[in-house]
TrEMBL record:
Gene Ontology molecular function: any one: sulfotransferase activity
Originating organism: Artemisia annua (Sweet wormwood)
Annotated protein name in UniProt: Sulfotransferase
Keywords, ordered alphabetically: Transferase
A Pfam cross-reference name: Sulfotransfer_1
InterPro entries: P-loop_NTPase, Sulfotransferase_dom
Entry EC number(s): 2.8.2.-
Comp. bias intervals (Low complexity): 129-147
Domain of life, source organism: Eukaryota
Domain Sulfotransferase: 192-412
Family affiliation: Belongs to the sulfotransferase 1 family.
Stretch list, region Disordered: 116-170
């Protein structure tokens, strides 16, 4: 592997005082450990149809997306799994579901009224959501069709049972809630960075393999460009959510994050050099526009399997986009959940204000498998749309607008 890297085009980032070297592999730039991890994932990672992969270029809202989807997964899986699975399998009457959904309070994540017998054993695996896209409006004119929610009386296509450790309703009662979920929602005690809850396939494969042993469905993430994803991701038909963001804000966010992780003070780092590199396509997972175009093309070819979401749109209408996300991953909110404010609670829990104020995100560190650690606070800077206006000159704005016009014209994408 070492020998191979010597043959690749490489670039030492001068604005980071040479503390970061990027290599171009399969058409994209990245640091060596990330490329090595991606190669390892290509060789070893076995995706399953029930997996959900959250993909993105760095600095586009990955942390937020991880928090939102994980919390949605957790709330539906932990609290409502028994009921929603049953409903999806066509065994539970709506009134029963209403009754059960009234029996929990998401704000405390406490289950009450747990005296009933299990409706279904949690060893029942979820069924694979059929690939039946319905048209959906996209904010950019991008055709990001989403599948319809699983019909209540649909004939389930159940994969062979996999060792699914989700507790039965009885054991749920005894266990109250999983430790990580407790940590996630308890600000003052030990808490957890969203990245520690949703591992990257290219840097934390080991964790994913462990999750796979223990569960029949997993949530994971990747910054790897679509064309370099492990073949099993495509072959398995697992679902992909891709988030992207206004390029100018990504450039600024990337400037601050890169500087922070290599520990070079702002006064020593000229923004114009960082801008120029990004503009040339040289950035982690860059060229940024090619990263987006790869996923957009795939989403058009495989509607219903890949959902494109724009950070700014998520911000502008978080409620309907969170519902859309939940539907897409196969865990739509019930009317009763919506009426009881579950969606808003998830949104508030994952808001920038809440997450950035958690003690763990102010003072904790995220340890990666390659022995590096990143301070959690670096993932939460301003989350402000249009922050680029504080850094860009008129000339930079013009250059980027022209570039984006050239690269994305006719794609329906707006950056
Ligand atoms: P800024 O640097 O513009 O503040 P990523 O998670 O892909 O690394 O992206 C990081 C960007 O997302 C940062 O943008 C960060 O502040 C913002 N972010 C982090 N958590 C967020 C949240 N809960 N809601 C909205 N934006 C968030």
């Amino acid at each position: 592997m070492e020998e191979m890297f010597k043959t690749l085009p490489q670039h030492s980032c001068s604005w980071l005082k040479g503390r970061m070297t990027l290599y171009n592999y399969q058409g994209f730039w990245n640091v060596q450990p990330a490329h090595e991890g991606a190669i390892m994932a290509q060789q070893k990672f076995k995706a399953r149809p029930t997996d959900v992969l959250l993909c993105s270029s760095p600095k586009t809202g990955t942390t937020w997306l991880k928090a939102l989807v994980k919390t949605n997964f957790a709330s539906s899986k932990y609290i409502l799994d028994v009921d929603t699975f049953h409903a999806r399998l066509g065994h539970t009457s709506v009134s029963k579901l209403v009754h059960l959904s009234k029996s929990f309070d998401v704000s405390n994540f406490k289950c009450e009224n747990m005296d009933e017998e299990p409706l279904v054993d949690r060893n029942d695996p979820p069924h694979v959501v059929p690939n039946t896209p319905v048209s959906s409006s996209s904010n950019d004119g991008v055709d990001s069709s989403v599948p319809s929610p699983v019909p209540m009386a649909a004939e389930p296509s159940i994969p062979p049972p996999i060792n699914n450790p989700l507790p039965t309703r009885k054991s749920t009662r005894a266990a109250t809630k999983p430790a990580w979920l407790k940590d996630f929602v308890t600000p003052k005690s030990t808490t957890t960075l969203p990245h520690a809850l949703v591992p990257f396939i290219e840097t934390e494969l080991h964790k994913i393999e462990e999750n796979h042993k223990n569960s029949s469905f997993s949530l994971m993430a990747s910054h790897v460009p679509y064309t370099s994803l492990p073949e099993s991701v495509i072959a398995s038909e697992c679902k992909i959510v891709y988030i992207y963001r206004n390029i100018k804000d990504v450039i600024v966010s990337n400037y601050h994050f890169s500087r922070d992780i290599v520990d070079v003070p702002a006064e020593n780092v000229p923004f114009d050099e960082a801008f120029e590199e990004f503009y040339q396509g040289i950035s982690a997972c860059g060229p940024y526009w090619d990263h987006i175009l790869g996923y957009q093309k795939a989403s058009l070819e495989r509607p219903g399997r890949i959902l494109l979401l724009k950070y700014e749109d998520l911000k502008m209408d978080v409620t309907s986009n969170v519902k859309r996300l939940a539907e897409f991953i196969g865990y739509p909110f019930t009317i009763e959940e919506e009426n009881s404010g579950v969606v808003e609670k998830i949104i508030n829990l994952c808001s920038f204000k809440n997450l950035s104020n958690l003690e763990v995100n102010k003072s904790g560190k995220h340890h990666l498998e390659n022995d590096t650690a990143i301070e959690n606070r670096f993932y939460f800077r301003k989350a402000k749309d249009g922050d680029w206006e504080n850094c860009f000159t008129d000339e930079m704005k013009e250059k980027i607008d022209k570039l984006i016009d050239e690269k994305l014209s006719g794609t329906g994408l707006v950056l």
